[in-house]
Fold this sequence. Notes:
Elements: E1 3-14, E2 21-32, E3 36-40, H1 47-54, E4 62-67, E5 70-71, H2 77-87, E6 88-92, H3 103-113, H4 120-129, H5 145-157, E7 163-167, H6 175-190, E8 196-199, H7 203-206, E9 211-216, E10 219-225, H8 229-238
Parallel strand pairs: 3-8, 3-9, 6-7, 7-8
Antiparallel strand pairs: 1-2, 1-4, 4-5, 9-10
Helix pairs in contact: 3-5, 5-6
Amino acid sequence: MTEAVRLDAVSKVYGKGQGAVAALREVSVGVPRGTFTAVMGPSGSGKSTFLQCAAGLDVPSSGAVRLGGTDLTGLDENALTELRRRRIGFVFQSFNLISALTVTENITLPLRLAGAGIDRSWLDEVVHRVGLGGRTGHRPAELSGGQQQRVAIARALVTRPEVVFGDEPTGALDTMTARDVLTLLREAVSALGQTVVMVTHDPVAASYADSVLFLADGRIVDAMPAPTAGKVAERMTRLGAWK
Ligand SMILES: Nc1ncnc2c1ncn2[C@@H]1O[C@H](COP(=O)(O)OP(=O)(O)OP(=O)(O)O)[C@@H](O)[C@H]1O
Protein backbone atom coordinates (compact mmCIF):
# COMPACT_ATOMS: atom_id res chain seq x y z
CA MET A 1 0.00 0.00 0.00
CA THR A 2 1.43 3.40 -0.90
CA GLU A 3 1.77 6.11 1.70
CA ALA A 4 0.03 9.47 1.50
CA VAL A 5 2.37 11.04 4.01
CA ARG A 6 5.59 9.84 5.61
CA LEU A 7 7.69 11.21 8.46
CA ASP A 8 11.28 10.03 8.88
CA ALA A 9 13.13 10.79 12.13
CA VAL A 10 11.21 14.03 12.54
CA SER A 11 12.22 16.07 15.58
CA LYS A 12 10.91 19.47 16.58
CA VAL A 13 12.53 21.61 19.24
CA TYR A 14 10.92 24.87 20.32
CA GLY A 15 13.20 27.53 21.81
CA LYS A 16 16.91 27.36 22.55
CA GLY A 17 19.31 26.50 25.35
CA GLN A 18 17.90 25.95 28.84
CA GLY A 19 14.33 26.71 27.80
CA ALA A 20 14.31 24.38 24.78
CA VAL A 21 11.35 21.98 24.54
CA ALA A 22 11.58 18.82 22.45
CA ALA A 23 7.99 18.53 21.16
CA LEU A 24 8.76 15.65 18.73
CA ARG A 25 11.63 13.19 19.08
CA GLU A 26 12.68 11.24 15.99
CA VAL A 27 9.18 10.33 14.90
CA SER A 28 9.05 7.93 11.95
CA VAL A 29 5.70 6.81 10.60
CA GLY A 30 3.84 6.39 7.33
CA VAL A 31 0.13 6.90 6.73
CA PRO A 32 -1.24 4.54 4.04
CA ARG A 33 -3.43 6.11 1.36
CA GLY A 34 -7.16 5.77 1.81
CA THR A 35 -7.03 5.23 5.57
CA PHE A 36 -8.35 7.09 8.61
CA THR A 37 -5.76 7.62 11.35
CA ALA A 38 -6.41 9.13 14.77
CA VAL A 39 -3.57 10.68 16.77
CA MET A 40 -3.93 10.61 20.54
CA GLY A 41 -1.78 11.22 23.59
CA PRO A 42 -1.69 13.14 26.85
CA SER A 43 -1.71 16.94 26.84
CA GLY A 44 1.65 18.24 25.67
CA SER A 45 2.66 14.91 24.09
CA GLY A 46 3.20 16.57 20.69
CA LYS A 47 -0.04 15.86 18.80
CA SER A 48 -0.50 19.37 17.39
CA THR A 49 3.18 19.61 16.55
CA PHE A 50 2.96 16.26 14.73
CA LEU A 51 -0.01 17.51 12.70
CA GLN A 52 1.62 20.86 11.93
CA CYS A 53 4.83 19.22 10.73
CA ALA A 54 3.02 16.52 8.73
CA ALA A 55 0.84 19.15 7.05
CA GLY A 56 3.67 21.52 6.14
CA LEU A 57 2.36 24.21 8.51
CA ASP A 58 5.51 24.01 10.60
CA VAL A 59 9.06 23.00 9.69
CA PRO A 60 10.76 20.17 11.63
CA SER A 61 14.08 20.91 13.36
CA SER A 62 15.43 17.74 11.74
CA GLY A 63 14.16 14.77 9.77
CA ALA A 64 12.06 14.61 6.63
CA VAL A 65 8.36 14.84 5.75
CA ARG A 66 7.11 13.50 2.43
CA LEU A 67 3.70 14.13 0.92
CA GLY A 68 3.22 11.55 -1.81
CA GLY A 69 6.42 11.84 -3.82
CA THR A 70 7.30 15.32 -2.56
CA ASP A 71 9.94 15.93 0.09
CA LEU A 72 8.83 19.00 2.04
CA THR A 73 12.34 19.57 3.40
CA GLY A 74 13.84 22.60 1.79
CA LEU A 75 10.63 23.89 0.17
CA ASP A 76 10.38 27.64 0.68
CA GLU A 77 7.30 29.29 2.21
CA ASN A 78 5.72 30.01 -1.20
CA ALA A 79 6.09 26.41 -2.31
CA LEU A 80 4.68 25.17 1.00
CA THR A 81 1.70 27.51 0.73
CA GLU A 82 1.02 26.27 -2.78
CA LEU A 83 1.34 22.65 -1.66
CA ARG A 84 -1.05 23.18 1.26
CA ARG A 85 -3.63 24.85 -1.00
CA ARG A 86 -3.59 22.20 -3.68
CA ARG A 87 -2.70 18.96 -1.94
CA ILE A 88 -3.84 19.20 1.69
CA GLY A 89 -7.21 19.81 3.34
CA PHE A 90 -7.70 21.10 6.88
CA VAL A 91 -10.54 20.84 9.37
CA PHE A 92 -10.10 22.73 12.63
CA GLN A 93 -12.03 22.74 15.89
CA SER A 94 -13.11 26.34 15.28
CA PHE A 95 -14.38 25.76 11.69
CA ASN A 96 -12.45 28.83 10.38
CA LEU A 97 -15.11 29.87 7.89
CA ILE A 98 -15.29 33.35 6.38
CA SER A 99 -18.43 35.01 7.73
CA ALA A 100 -19.01 37.30 4.73
CA LEU A 101 -19.00 34.40 2.26
CA THR A 102 -21.84 32.00 1.46
CA VAL A 103 -21.56 28.24 1.96
CA THR A 104 -20.64 27.70 -1.69
CA GLU A 105 -18.12 30.55 -1.64
CA ASN A 106 -16.49 29.17 1.52
CA ILE A 107 -16.29 25.68 0.02
CA THR A 108 -14.76 26.85 -3.23
CA LEU A 109 -12.35 29.33 -1.62
CA PRO A 110 -9.31 26.98 -1.74
CA LEU A 111 -9.88 26.47 -5.48
CA ARG A 112 -10.06 30.20 -6.08
CA LEU A 113 -6.95 30.83 -3.96
CA ALA A 114 -5.11 28.17 -5.94
CA GLY A 115 -6.32 29.64 -9.22
CA ALA A 116 -7.89 26.27 -10.04
CA GLY A 117 -11.12 25.76 -11.95
CA ILE A 118 -14.27 24.53 -10.24
CA ASP A 119 -15.40 21.05 -11.21
CA ARG A 120 -19.17 21.57 -10.87
CA SER A 121 -20.15 17.92 -10.65
CA TRP A 122 -17.56 17.23 -7.95
CA LEU A 123 -18.67 20.35 -6.04
CA ASP A 124 -22.27 19.13 -6.24
CA GLU A 125 -21.27 15.70 -5.01
CA VAL A 126 -19.30 17.12 -2.08
CA VAL A 127 -22.13 19.48 -1.10
CA HIS A 128 -24.61 16.62 -1.35
CA ARG A 129 -22.41 14.26 0.67
CA VAL A 130 -22.03 16.67 3.54
CA GLY A 131 -25.79 17.26 3.51
CA LEU A 132 -25.75 20.98 2.72
CA GLY A 133 -27.82 20.82 -0.44
CA GLY A 134 -30.45 23.30 0.74
CA ARG A 135 -28.04 25.69 2.40
CA THR A 136 -25.55 26.73 -0.27
CA GLY A 137 -26.60 30.41 -0.25
CA HIS A 138 -26.51 30.76 3.56
CA ARG A 139 -23.75 32.46 5.50
CA PRO A 140 -21.95 30.71 8.40
CA ALA A 141 -23.84 32.69 11.08
CA GLU A 142 -27.11 31.21 9.76
CA LEU A 143 -25.87 27.65 10.31
CA SER A 144 -25.54 25.42 13.39
CA GLY A 145 -22.09 24.40 14.62
CA GLY A 146 -22.46 20.98 13.04
CA GLN A 147 -23.48 22.49 9.72
CA GLN A 148 -20.53 24.89 9.86
CA GLN A 149 -18.18 21.97 10.38
CA ARG A 150 -19.80 20.25 7.38
CA VAL A 151 -18.95 23.30 5.29
CA ALA A 152 -15.36 23.07 6.55
CA ILE A 153 -15.24 19.37 5.60
CA ALA A 154 -16.63 20.12 2.14
CA ARG A 155 -14.01 22.87 1.76
CA ALA A 156 -11.33 20.36 2.75
CA LEU A 157 -12.58 17.74 0.26
CA VAL A 158 -13.24 19.99 -2.73
CA THR A 159 -9.62 20.09 -3.92
CA ARG A 160 -9.41 16.26 -3.76
CA PRO A 161 -6.41 16.61 -1.45
CA GLU A 162 -3.94 13.82 -0.79
CA VAL A 163 -4.59 14.12 2.95
CA VAL A 164 -7.21 15.84 5.10
CA PHE A 165 -5.79 16.83 8.49
CA GLY A 166 -8.20 17.40 11.36
CA ASP A 167 -7.22 19.12 14.61
CA GLU A 168 -9.94 18.22 17.14
CA PRO A 169 -12.63 18.60 14.44
CA THR A 170 -15.38 17.56 16.86
CA GLY A 171 -14.00 19.44 19.87
CA ALA A 172 -16.61 22.20 19.72
CA LEU A 173 -19.61 20.00 18.90
CA ASP A 174 -22.18 18.22 21.08
CA THR A 175 -22.11 14.42 21.17
CA MET A 176 -24.75 13.74 18.54
CA THR A 177 -23.45 16.36 16.10
CA ALA A 178 -19.92 15.08 16.63
CA ARG A 179 -21.06 11.59 15.63
CA ASP A 180 -22.54 12.90 12.38
CA VAL A 181 -19.30 14.73 11.55
CA LEU A 182 -17.21 11.64 12.36
CA THR A 183 -19.48 9.49 10.19
CA LEU A 184 -18.93 11.97 7.38
CA LEU A 185 -15.14 11.75 7.74
CA ARG A 186 -15.42 7.96 7.90
CA GLU A 187 -17.44 7.96 4.66
CA ALA A 188 -14.94 10.25 2.96
CA VAL A 189 -12.36 7.51 3.60
CA SER A 190 -14.53 4.47 2.89
CA ALA A 191 -16.51 5.77 -0.09
CA LEU A 192 -14.16 8.34 -1.65
CA GLY A 193 -10.79 6.82 -0.75
CA GLN A 194 -9.77 10.01 1.07
CA THR A 195 -6.85 9.84 3.52
CA VAL A 196 -7.68 11.44 6.89
CA VAL A 197 -5.38 12.13 9.87
CA MET A 198 -7.16 13.50 12.92
CA VAL A 199 -5.90 14.64 16.32
CA THR A 200 -8.45 14.02 19.05
CA HIS A 201 -8.77 13.71 22.82
CA ASP A 202 -11.93 11.65 22.51
CA PRO A 203 -11.71 7.81 22.48
CA VAL A 204 -15.14 7.63 20.80
CA ALA A 205 -13.91 9.88 17.97
CA ALA A 206 -10.76 7.75 17.67
CA SER A 207 -12.90 4.61 17.34
CA TYR A 208 -14.10 5.85 13.91
CA ALA A 209 -10.53 5.57 12.62
CA ASP A 210 -8.82 2.53 11.10
CA SER A 211 -5.94 2.90 13.50
CA VAL A 212 -4.75 5.09 16.35
CA LEU A 213 -1.24 6.41 16.87
CA PHE A 214 -0.38 7.16 20.49
CA LEU A 215 2.12 9.88 21.29
CA ALA A 216 3.82 10.35 24.65
CA ASP A 217 6.57 12.85 25.35
CA GLY A 218 7.16 13.52 21.66
CA ARG A 219 7.42 9.86 20.60
CA ILE A 220 5.04 7.40 18.99
CA VAL A 221 4.70 4.79 21.71
CA ASP A 222 1.98 2.59 20.26
CA ALA A 223 -0.28 1.98 17.26
CA MET A 224 -3.67 0.34 17.61
CA PRO A 225 -5.46 -1.13 14.59
CA ALA A 226 -9.25 -1.55 14.69
CA PRO A 227 -9.67 0.66 17.75
CA THR A 228 -12.70 0.59 20.03
CA ALA A 229 -13.51 3.44 22.41
CA GLY A 230 -12.94 1.11 25.37
CA LYS A 231 -9.51 -0.09 24.21
CA VAL A 232 -8.42 3.45 23.37
CA ALA A 233 -9.58 4.80 26.75
CA GLU A 234 -7.71 2.02 28.52
CA ARG A 235 -4.50 2.76 26.57
CA MET A 236 -4.82 6.46 27.33
CA THR A 237 -5.27 5.71 31.03
CA ARG A 238 -2.09 3.65 31.00
CA LEU A 239 -0.30 6.60 29.36
CA GLY A 240 -1.35 8.66 32.37
CA ALA A 241 -3.59 10.93 30.32
CA TRP A 242 -6.42 11.11 32.83
CA LYS A 243 -4.95 11.09 36.31
N1 LIG B 1 5.30 27.50 19.80
C1 LIG B 1 5.77 26.82 20.85
N2 LIG B 1 6.78 27.32 21.60
C2 LIG B 1 7.28 26.63 22.65
N3 LIG B 1 6.86 25.42 23.04
C3 LIG B 1 5.84 24.88 22.34
C4 LIG B 1 5.26 25.54 21.22
N4 LIG B 1 4.27 24.74 20.73
C5 LIG B 1 4.25 23.65 21.51
N5 LIG B 1 5.19 23.72 22.48
C6 LIG B 1 5.50 22.68 23.48
O1 LIG B 1 5.72 21.47 22.80
C7 LIG B 1 5.13 20.39 23.50
C8 LIG B 1 4.12 19.67 22.62
O2 LIG B 1 3.04 20.58 22.34
P1 LIG B 1 1.78 20.17 21.45
O3 LIG B 1 0.90 21.37 21.38
O4 LIG B 1 2.26 19.58 20.18
O5 LIG B 1 1.10 19.04 22.34
P2 LIG B 1 -0.36 18.42 22.26
O6 LIG B 1 -0.21 16.96 22.47
O7 LIG B 1 -1.04 18.86 21.01
O8 LIG B 1 -1.07 19.08 23.52
P3 LIG B 1 -2.63 19.38 23.83
O9 LIG B 1 -3.32 18.07 23.83
O10 LIG B 1 -2.58 20.00 25.21
O11 LIG B 1 -3.11 20.32 22.77
C9 LIG B 1 4.52 20.97 24.78
O12 LIG B 1 5.45 20.84 25.83
C10 LIG B 1 4.32 22.43 24.41
O13 LIG B 1 4.38 23.24 25.56
